[in-house]
Structure to design on (160 residues):
């Protein structure tokens, strides 16, 4: 990549709202990551007077790149906890479940996966970024549809 094109790419990524971007060309990989400020919620301690009109707020976890790999339990519609490790989108783009329109999806619910197996693709700026499993296990949920726009950090798969 020529230096002028590199500067243009850096400026375009810097001016956008992207928090992460990866570009590969001729065996060279460029990765831009923008740190997002952490937000913390401070709740009053027990015994301190509160405004009676304010409803209690559930605790909020600060999300950072380390929480992408933590196991997470989420309540389903029946009030039962769903456990497993979430694979989240590393960037903003369009999710594809298969390598082409007429091909079979990379994985389906119930498939066993090994670490490094391609689970899907997120297209960003005409670049196809493979989403690989960070874990060994079984795909218990596919949380997005083929062709759906995804955000950075959005859960894509649950592996148990």
């Amino acid at each position: 990549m020529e230096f002028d094109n590199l500067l243009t790419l850096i400026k375009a990524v810097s001016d956008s709202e992207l928090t992460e971007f990866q570009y590969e060309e001729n065996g060279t990989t460029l990765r831009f990551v923008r740190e997002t400020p952490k937000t913390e919620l401070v709740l009053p301690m027990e015994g301190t007077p509160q405004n009676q009109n304010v409803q209690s707020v559930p605790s909020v976890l600060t999300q950072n790149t380390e929480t992408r790999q933590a196991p997470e339990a989420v309540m389903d519609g029946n009030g039962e906890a769903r456990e497993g490790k979430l694979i989240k989108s590393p960037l903003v783009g369009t999710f594809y479940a298969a390598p082409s329109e007429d091909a079979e999806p990379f994985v389906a619910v119930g498939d066993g996966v090994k670490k490094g197996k391609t689970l899907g693709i997120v297209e960003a700026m005409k670049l196809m970024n493979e989403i690989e499993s960070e874990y060994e296990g079984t795909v218990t949920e596919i949380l997005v549809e083929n062709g759906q726009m995804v955000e950075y950090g959005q859960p894509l798969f649950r592996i148990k």
Observations:
- The chain is about 10% helix and 30% strand.
